[in-house]
Amino acid sequence: MVISSIDLKDGHVVQLKNGKDLMLQRDDADKLISDFNTYGEVAVIDLDAALRNTDAKGNTPNTELLKSLLRKGNVRVGGGIRDVKKAKELISLGAEKVIIGSAAWKKAPSAGESPLDTEFLSQLEKAIGRQRIIISVDAIHGKIAVRGWTETIDVPLIDGAREAEKYASELLFTCVEKEGCMEGTDMDMVRQLRDAVHCRVVAAGGVNSLKQVAELEKCGCDVQLGMALYTGAVHLEDCFSACLDWEKTGGMIPVIAQSPAGEVLMHGYANKEALAKTMETKKLTFWSRTRNTLWTKGETSGHFLAVQKLRADCDRDTILATVEPHGGVCHTGSFTCFGSDPDERSSMERLYATIADRFASPRPGSYTATLNDKRVREKVMEEAEELTEAEGRQDVIWEAADVLYFISVLMYKEGVTWQDIYDELDRRHKEH
Length: 432
Description:
Layout: E1 2-9, E2 12-17, E3 21-26, H1 29-37, E4 42-46, H2 47-50, H3 63-69, E5 75-78, H4 84-92, E6 97-100, H5 118-128, E7 133-136, E8 139-140, E9 143-146, E10 151-156, H6 157-164, E11 170-174, H7 187-196, E12 200-204, H8 210-218, E13 222-225, H9 227-230, H10 236-242, E14 253-258, E15 264-270, H11 272-281, E16 285-288, E17 293-296, E18 305-312, E19 319-325, H12 348-360, H13 373-389, H14 393-413, H15 418-431
Parallel strand pairs: 1-4, 1-13, 4-5, 5-6, 6-7, 7-11, 11-12, 12-13, 14-19
Antiparallel strand pairs: 1-2, 2-3, 8-9, 9-10, 14-15, 16-17, 18-19
């Protein structure tokens, strides 16, 4: 599958040729990550950090922008990660994985010794886990490239990769001399690398066509794309479809729809035409095997499923669609096809949405709509006191529900969502 790249330099989104020459510059990082995350993971790279263009605190012109992107998708982050503390901080801020470049490699390894900084990598693995570590095995003419691709060390790519996979769940290979040139990557080198290691391999640098994306997928490699996406040479929608194993499934891919909270809603099948319509309309569309025709969920009832993101499974023969349901999903009227409850299960997100609706469209007699800033704070304090005085299970449940309701109202008024709270709890968990 394709991993889209957002490279940051001097506070802008850029694309460089051979890691040096500026080819394009943009300032729409938020839109880019929203679009890119619909179809797969996103790599955010701080080029200034990689080149050591930092201040006394280790920050770059990209630091704040990078931090703002980390929880806006399934993000991996790279560029200038040279110590365990920095890696842990990025994970706590929302990065799913960190990409370790020059810091993974010794400056001048002696003959017969590991070319890796094994002490650093062992500490990193202990701190964040091997599954969160990606090591860059960038190469110039077959030799490992370091220091922002400005130097090479006398370590052949394949030898270095075999050592690196001992400490990482993935290897990111960039053919530096092809980077940004739009001339295609070095497929022979990619195949050699794929045959040499067992972990996941992501290829980057020069990929310039849908055909080559599909070719890399067929040989067992994912692709990190930059220039080809920004110039329109390839489109993510086409890449997503091209990487699926249509032949294995007989042209009909199973699609599982789940809510943003992870509840399984329904299951159906899509052919290439149905998937294309889903991508075009952002409403989940299937192929009806009984009627032999396309059907968009909700086209008659209005209960459509708004697509937030699509993900393929590891075998590329099933799609998981995260969707926002508009009404009951099942034809029986139930919220999910896997249950008889007509209503969505209660959750903090559902409560928050109801509160937002009450303020946006006040109904006659709505208590929620009467709560001003002062009153809601008073109620939080009042209900919290009643919770601390509650005795017995049922009283605690009752009072806790009151507290959560008023907290949700206060959060809404301050523009804070439950996802913001979850993110902060997640950050604290990963920080310690």
